[in-house]
Specification:
It is an enzyme of class 1 (oxidoreductase). The protein contains 4 helices and 3 strands; from the N terminus they run αβαβαβα. It is an alpha+beta fold.
């Protein structure tokens, strides 16, 4: 596999599952959950969700963070599945925030201050303060 393939670019091999939604066990619709009253959701992906989650937990106005996976070829992947690089999932953090205390722009500022998409595997850079 080429280095681009290892990063998730390129075509799928014939052994990978079809993306035909009629035969997929992956949920095809939107999440059914909603944010708490007066809150909003935002979702960010940056290679490894642990560092990204910590960044958002420190932003005033963020009331909840959740980590998980999005996209991909298998239903309910494990951490090991995703780390294998074969499922095409992205690690993401979903942030629940109070827009009266924290703007979406401030979430973007926190994200881009810590994330450089040109780094290998698009990992977040952790800065200790």
């Amino acid at each position: 596999m080429s280095w681009l393939g290892k990063l998730g670019f390129g075509t799928r091999s014939p052994t990978e599952p079809s993306m035909d939604s009629s035969s997929s066990s992956i949920a095809q619709g939107p999440d059914n959950d909603i944010p708490a009253p007066g809150q909003q959701f935002a979702q960010f992906g940056a290679g490894c969700f642990w560092g990204v989650e910590l960044v958002f937990q420190r932003v005033p106005g963020v009331t909840k963070t959740e980590v998980g996976y999005t996209q991909g070829f298998i239903h309910k992947p494990t951490y090991e599945d995703v780390c294998s690089g074969t499922t095409n999932h992205s690690e993401v953090v979903r942030v629940q925030y109070d827009p009266k205390e924290c703007s979406f722009e401030s979430l973007l500022d926190a994200f881009w201050a810590r994330h450089d998409p040109t780094t290998l595997n698009r990992q977040i850079e952790l800065l200790c303060r």
